[in-house]
Design goal:
Shape: globular
Radius of gyration: 17 Å
Strand content: 25-35%
Distance between the termini: 11 Å
Structural class: alpha/beta
Strand order of the largest sheet: 3-2-1-4-7
Helix content: 25-40%
Largest sheet: 5 strands, mixed
Number of strands: 14
Order of helices and strands: EEEHEEEHEHEEEEEHHHEEH
């Protein structure tokens, strides 16, 4: 039997968000619960918040959890915008223990990969064929790469070197706020970043997401690149939806 509801948690550098998800519609059921990311964002501190969010929802099924990190076989290998103690942590085991679940009931994945999975499943049908790159602009830049709808996990295109800089240090949404850039000023940096990336991977479609996608009309029309650009249909909820879907699928195998 295919699960019709799931639970996803999206861990970011500034906030940890969780919600029940309708897996047929790709939509949140009720409100999402958001708690500020603890500082320092150590594995134990974050696990406490995740447990609080799951407990508040009174959810007892499988849980999908995203991390802003390369995640292989449940273990974090990098730590972007979270405490470096995450590196080498078996996140799947940590959350399973804190939530009182078996390891099989917890599915860990990279945050951008989760958002991409949600967009591929519930978003623009054009994303399911050819090479599609989803980019989330937030505290950093997350990336997810798909070929004919199949994920190539753990790409780190936010860390491409562009004009001598780590791309996300120049073009993440947080940089726009921190440097007081206008949307046109920031869009120039995003344009430069995307033009470098498209010449490396020659995608058929870019999907842009993250919190800043809510104001897409202020910057997406300013991008004058070869590759078509669409805005993530699930906007900032894509990570939660993708995590819930991945957990339900994993539990169903």
């Amino acid at each position: 039997m295919t699960a019709t509801r799931g639970f996803g948690i999206d861990i970011g550098g500034s906030g940890i968000k969780g919600a029940l998800v309708d897996l047929e519609q790709g939509q949140l059921i009720g409100d999402r619960h958001r708690i500020e990311t603890p500082q320092p964002s150590t594995p134990d501190a974050v696990a406490d918040v995740v447990a609080e969010i799951v407990r508040a929802a009174e959810w007892d099924g499988p849980v999908g959890v995203t991390l802003p990190a390369v995640v292989k076989k449940g273990t974090a290998h990098t730590a972007a915008n979270i405490d470096h103690k995450w590196i080498g942590t078996d996140a799947e085991a940590l959350f399973a223990k804190r939530l009182g679940k078996s390891v099989e009931e917890v599915t860990m994945l990279n945050d951008a990969d989760a958002a991409g999975l949600a967009e591929i499943r519930f978003g623009d049908a054009a994303a399911r064929t050819g090479v599609t790159a989803l980019l989330t602009f937030g505290t950093g830049i997350g990336s997810a790469l798909f070929h004919d709808g199949k994920l190539v996990p753990n790409t780190e295109f936010g860390h491409l070197e562009v004009d001598g800089h780590d791309a996300e240090k120049r073009a993440a949404a947080s940089v726009k706020d921190n440097e007081g850039l206008s949307y046109p000023q920031w869009a120039k940096r995003v344009h430069r970043y995307l033009s470098v990336l498209e010449n490396l991977i020659w995608p058929d479609l870019f999907i842009v997401g993250g919190g800043v996608s809510k104001k897409a009309e202020k910057w997406v029309p300013l991008l004058d690149i070869r590759t078509p650009v669409v805005v993530a249909s699930l906007q900032n909820n894509a990570g939660i939806v993708g995590a819930a879907a991945a957990a339900a699928e994993s539990a169903g195998h």
